[in-house]
Amino acid sequence: MNLLHVALLLLLAILMGLVLAGRATAAANLARRSVLIIVSCLILSPFVWLVFATFKDPSVLNEYVFLPPFAEWSAETINLSNLRTLLAPQETVHGTYSFFLYIFNSVFLATAQTLLQVTFCSMAGFAFAVYSFRGRQALFLLVLGSMMIPPILLLAPVYRMVVNFGWMDTYFALLVPGAVGAYGIFLYRQAMMRVPKELFDAARIDGASELRIWYEIALPLVRPITGAFCLVVFLNAWNSFIAPNVFLQSTYKMPLPVILQHFVGQYENQYGVFLAGTFLAILPPACLFFYLQREFILGLTSGGVKE
């Protein structure tokens, strides 16, 4: 019987004692909080395991679930060898490059694609929500219908277009096809339809251009949606694997997901280094989530209350 079994038995005994004492409400509250704590621990356990695996020596990586017993802690079991191997300059056919270069590539691609999608999707959503023109509903239905097409089906035609434009092994092949998306257009259109049209009319009377109305009035009023959408787009771009693998050929242009799979393959299995790279790869999205957490939650709940 380990410590976990003892804790569960003690919790069960306390619950039974509260029920027998006639304090059913207190027992229910304790049971509810206990379930939440247990579920939270289960959710967080993979991340804790990843952090511990990063600092374990490769020789003991598979011997312990988390960390070795405290009595066995030493430089041979707990060290920074995985991080040192990961951050050391790597020899490639194009030269010697550091792991930080691939981090910069991922940050650049994810940030650029996020800015492009926020700009063009918000413009399109603004047009669908504010302007009345012939064929607006049909065009919007066409945009919504495109969401039912799996992106992998478009890989072959996009590849042909990229080759014809001469964009192979350039970031244009990744940024231009992903500069706008139907989901973002739909999201911004629904958000901007809730903005009173009188605000736009008052801005036009004051002499504001349509571009200024979009940038200074519409966008600030849908900031929670922008925060949630930025997080979704950034994560999708950060985790992108197929498109960079297809369109990029130079190693020094690769993002993190493509580089990390080189450590685990047919001829090389450096699981400790791979896990260390995974740990570093989740830090930027995690920081972005905590920064945009308030806007993300507001964006998810903005349509939950009917006015």
Short synopsis of the structure:
This protein is mainly alpha-helical and 307 residues long. It is built from 16 helices and 2 strands.
Find the count of extended strands (DSSP E, 2+ residues).
Answer: 2
At the first level of CATH, what is the class of the largest domain?
A: Mainly Alpha
Biggest sheet overview:
2 strands, antiparallel
What's the assembly state of these chains?
A: single chain
SS summary, helix count = 16
Q: Which strand order do you get reading across the main beta sheet?
A: 1-2
Strand content: under 5%
Protein topology:
Blueprint: H1 3-20, H2 24-55, H3 81-87, E1 90-92, E2 95-97, H4 99-130, H5 136-146, H6 155-165, H7 172-175, H8 182-192, H9 197-205, H10 210-221, H11 223-238, H12 242-247, H13 256-260, H14 271-281, H15 283-291, H16 293-301
Antiparallel strand pairs: 1-2
Structure description:
With 307 residues, the chain is an all-alpha fold. The chain has two domains: 3-79, no CATH class; 96-301, MetI-like fold (Orthogonal Bundle). It is 66% helix and 2% strand. It has 16 helices and two strands. It has helices at 3-20, 24-55, 81-87, 99-130, 136-146, 155-165, 172-175, 182-192, 197-205, 210-221, 223-238, 242-247, 256-260, 271-281, 283-291, 293-301, and strands at residues 90-92, 95-97. A two-stranded antiparallel sheet has the order 1-2. Strand 1 (90-92) and strand 2 (95-97) form a beta hairpin. The longest helix is centred in the first third of the chain and has 32 residues, at 24-55. Mean pLDDT is 85; it is low at 303-307.
